[in-house]
Specification:
The chain contains 11 helices and 5 strands. The relative contact order is 0.05. Helix 1 packs antiparallel against helix 2. It is 64% helix and 9% strand.
């Protein structure tokens, strides 16, 4: 926590004014006693001491500085004396008068005049105090002005940073809302139609074999799962989900690959093996999610381009990376651009997002091979 300077404390003028007034009265009484002044003179000296110091506690900076200047000039001109506490009160008043530098310079001028044209002879102490006030008054005013300018600059910088942070936050929130709307409007509608059409075809097609009905049922279930996952993603992107966000589940990772392959076997009716190698290493959530999505997309591509082909998924843990190897025993790519589709592009982007890399292409002999290397720590977590 930043400590507030003592001179900027709002209680400082009252406390210092009262203390300086007490000291100034003591100085006036001592001066009257040592100089043999009459009672009337002593009373005037005490009143001047109070008039020099108390304005600091009860008046605004401008009025306090003006009152202190008038009384100190009277004290120096009439009695050739000035309590040191009164000089301190005057300097503090000028310090607080940081917003009117010209007035501070005007109030400092009488002391320069008194130092140059004051009555002679005069005590060396009074002459030194008068010359000091002539030099210190504008210097103290400039110090107060610099302090105020620095304080205002800090306030302006903090305000600009707050505004910039708010603009960035609003921009990000608007972008998330836009993405959520586009996903809902463009993708969710088509997936819903897919689920409905699969269920309608299963129920209305006469004489459909049991295997075909199971496939259509699996298509409908997959579409509904995709809708559920998309709504979960939209709930993360949108901040106005309210209580619905409480039902969100964690993002999938390597631990859910067994369920993913079970689902793939049920849908395709072919063999899908999951092989783990190496000791388990804790992974960042981003790496977990990237690994799951890469395997998920590779299985989808295998079902689409090599229906009926068996798939092997190898997950190899090493000290510095997670290696994925997904291979099917299908006919392999049938064209030169088979390895450059949107699905493979998405997998490469997933791998690159966590600092990894991905390669895909024809396997040796036959089939299609996807290989990915994902670092165990993402760049953002270091």
């Amino acid at each position: 926590m930043t400590r507030r300077p003592i001179l900027s404390d709002p209680r400082m003028p009252v406390v210092s004014g009262v203390l300086l007034a007490t000291v100034a009265v003591g100085e006036a009484i001592a001066h009257a006693a040592t100089s043999g002044a009459l009672l009337q003179q002593a009373t005037v000296l005490v009143l001047l001491a109070l008039a020099t110091t108390l304005p600091l506690a009860v008046l605004r900076p401008g009025a306090a500085a003006l009152a202190s200047t008038v009384t100190t000039v009277l004290s120096l001109s009439l009695f050739h004396t000035l309590p040191i506490a009164g000089a301190c009160a005057l300097l503090l008043s000028l310090y607080r008068l940081a917003s009117a530098l010209w007035l501070s310079l005007v109030l400092a001028a009488p002391y320069l005049v008194l130092a140059l044209t004051g009555p002679r002879p005069t005590s060396s102490e009074v002459a030194f105090l008068t010359a000091s006030l002539a030099a210190l008054a504008p210097a103290v005013a400039l110090t107060g002005l610099a302090r105020r300018a620095q304080s205002e600059a800090r306030i302006h910088i903090a305000a600009r940073e707050a505004v910039a942070g708010t603009l960035i936050e609003h921009t990000a929130r608007g972008e998330r809302a836009r993405i959520a709307r586009e996903l809902h409007d463009v993708v969710a509608h088509h997936i819903s139609i897919l689920a409905v059409q699969a269920e309608t075809a299963r129920l209305t097609t006469p004489g459909m074999p049991a295997a075909g009905a199971e496939r259509l049922s699996a298509i409908g279930d997959t579409a509904r799962d995709a809708l559920t996952e998309m709504r979960r993603l939209l709930g993360v992107l949108r901040e106005d989900t309210g209580p619905a966000a409480a039902g969100l589940r964690p993002q999938p990772g390597v631990g859910q690959l067994i369920e993913l392959l079970d689902e793939s076997r049920d849908v395709s009716g072919t063999t899908a093996r999951l092989i783990f190698r190496g000791p388990l290493v804790p992974l960042d959530p981003g790496v977990e999610l990237a690994a799951y999505r890469i395997v998920q997309e590779a299985l989808t591509n295998a079902r689409r381009h090599a229906p009926g082909a068996a798939v092997d998924v190898e997950v190899h843990y090493t000290a510095d990376a997670l290696h994925l190897r997904i291979r099917d025993n299908g006919p392999g790519p049938d064209s030169a651009d088979a390895a450059t589709g949107h699905g493979l592009l998405g997998m490469r982007e997933r791998a690159a997002a966590v600092g990894g890399e991905l390669r895909a292409g024809a396997a040796s002999g036959t089939g299609f091979l996807v290989q990915a290397r994902l670092p165990t720590k993402t760049e953002t977590s270091r």
